[in-house]
Amino acid sequence: MAKVFVTDLVLRDGHQSLIATRMQTADMLPICGKLDQVGFWSLEAWGGATFDACVRFLREDPWERLRQLRKALPNTRIQMLLRGQNLLGYRNYSDDVVRAFVQKSADNGVDVFRIFDAMNDLRNLRVSVEAVKAAGKHAEGTVCYTTSPVHNIPHFVELAKGLAEMGCDTIAIKDMAGLLTPYTAFELVSAIRAATNLPIHTHSHATSGLAHMTHLKAVEAGASIIDTCVGAFAEGASHPTTQSLVAALAGTEYDTGLSLPLIEEISAYFKETRKKYWQFESAFTGTDTRVLINQVPGGMISNLANQLKEQGSLDKMDAVLEEIPRVRADLGFPPLVTPTSQIVGTQAALNVMTGARYKSVTNEVKLYLQGRYGRAPGHVNEEVRKMAIGDLDVTTCRPADLLGDELDKLRNEIEGLAKSDEDVLTYAMFPEIGKTWLQERSAGSLKPEPLLPQQSAATQDNAPRYAADEFKITLHGETYHIKLSGSGRSDATQRPYFVAIDGVTEEVLVEPLNEVAVSGGSEKSTRKASATAPAPGQKPRPSHPGHVTAAMPGSIVDVLVSIGQTVKAGDGVLVIEAMKMENEVQAPIAGVVISIFAKKGDAVTPDMALVEIQPE
Cα 473 from chain centroid? Predict the structure, then answer.
């Protein structure tokens, strides 16, 4: 029997870390036969961001993906990543939803549940662990590793002891950003082994370049399972290459016993598959030692880059990475792992994009500061808390204790669209996009996010390249250096493009001409009507202080006011979703709402007036 076991992450964390979780199920199934032959301890294939991406982008049924993988991998454990009381969403769910979700995940094919809480608050893990044990499955309790003034080895050992007391079968050390150094790993694994006597499973992203050494020292200290990823989706923001660690341990007392030639066949398959997803490749997923400071986890970095690109703000990536540690300190040094990584990252992006720290605060940050995600590891900046939530009470109990049972209510809300308990749980995870997904499935109109043709990414030697986003333009003898950093969402007349012209960032509004009109045998073209007189359904440009605008591009989740309603400055007017977080848009002045230009579901940009308020 192998002394060290391997969990491979290619079906989940590998593509989440490098191509924004965009791999489709159809590209996983053909290679499952070979994956099943290798003898991995488990294959991580579900959970994390895969559920969200299936529904939001790929327009797939995540439960059907799980069932298909289970059938295709009869001899291998399927592992999922579960966010404790957050499950796979971005809020705490009631206990009855947690139990139902775990049971259905087990029924559909999950064998190993890696259960973590972004705050390392053990209260948020108890119900999930109990549910996994009740389902007869393997519960892997997880310590989220991070560095800060309030995190140290005795702290992590106490967490591991608490997980052991709950009845966990193994302990995972989850180093989501690649912060764990080799000798610290040796010390930490040794201490947890001595305190719990449970098998230890180590997980470390390769972003900082330390993970290979970290795994080796962890193995020497007694870790019996390590996480790796086949070469085609390994390294950088992903994980150490499976082949490399199999070779490193071969012929030692830790020999994995796995076949390198077979794993190389699998890697060759994924190398070709990855080319299909070239549009989701990012310049921010390689080795980057800045992670030792900003601590952005590998599973988030490609998604963050993609989200900023969609916002037309990819040029602000470095500024956002510098702001993230400051926001994290303000929030009491939470480990950066979903959902706290998204909460901190989105707030940092807002701080940078609005040009003022905490001018706009996401609803999730407000809930965090109310204690609704659990206990912060360190002290919260009280000035920021006051700015965000005023005098609202801060929760001190287990957050889910404030929630009543939700499952029956959810079933009623989605009645007629949900065909199974799994459908109800999909709606529970993501109410807005889940409901839209169910409606489109019912109408037979589900369409995946389009993949750009592969030939668009190929040069003569078949190396990947991208559509030109940097070029020179010569006009009247003057040459300008142009770099496209992104594009915003178009309205009825214009689409904003964000470009750097000789290093100066500018917004360029592209306004297409009307179709050619034929009159009296002659052709003439006419411009569309000015945006100052919007056509029906078109949103006007903001032109006075009473015009309410969004801080960043997103979609309208809710309209909180009606025409004729009196509002005070700072009252909530709209809720938008941007970068997977909800943000309440507030009234800039006091007055009466006289016009509402936005409705639920609209895609909006900062240059649109959404509501008009007339001063009293």
Answer: 37
For 226, which DSSP code? Answer: E
Backbone angles phi and psi of 430, in degrees to 5: -140, 85
Please report where in the chains the tokens 């709950």 appear, as a residue.
Answer: 166
Number of alpha carbons in the 13 Å side-chain half-sphere of residue 590: 2
Residue 140 identity: E
Q: What is the pLDDT of residue 71?
A: 98
Q: Which residues contact 6 (CB under 8 A, 6 or more apart)?
A: 40, 41, 225, 226, 227, 228, 242, 245, 246, 256, 258
What is residue 122's predicted lDDT score, i.e. its pLDDT? 97
pLDDT confidence of residue 515: 40
Cis peptide before 512 (omega within 30 of 0): no
The values of phi and psi at residue 184, to 5°, are: -65, -40
Helix 182-196 / helix 153-166 crossing angle, nearest 10 deg:
40
- pLDDT band, residue 549 (cuts 50/70/90): confident
**Dihedral of the alpha carbons of 352, 353, 358, 359, in degrees to the nearest 10:** 140
Beta carbons of 374 and 399 less than 8 angstroms apart: yes
Q: What is residue 195's DSSP assignment?
A: H
pLDDT for 337 equals 86
How far is residue 229 from each of residues 7, 282, 446, measured CA to CA in Å? Answer: 8, 18, 31
CA distance 16 to 10: 9
| pLDDT tens profile 465-503 | 444 556 677 666 666 677 665 555 455 556 566 666 665
Dihedral pair phi/psi, residue 550, rounded to 5°: -85, 150
Residue with token string 């590793």: 145
User: pLDDT at residue 552 above 60?
Assistant: yes
CB atoms within 10 A of CB 74: 9
| Whole-angstrom distance, CA of residue 345 vs CA of residue 362 | 11
Helix (H) / strand (E) containing 268: helix 260-275
Instruction: Return the amino acid letter for 494.
Output: Q
Question: Mean pLDDT across the stretch 351-368?
Answer: 88
Strand partners, 112: 79, 138
Core vs surface per residue 364-384: b (16+ CB within 10 A) or e: bbbbbbbbbbbbbbeebbeeb
CB within 8 Å of 530: residues ≥ 6 apart: none
DSSP tag of 106: H
Q: Which of 488, 597, 577, 480 is nearest to 534 (CA)?
A: 597
Collapsing DSSP to helix, strand or coil, 458 comes out as strand
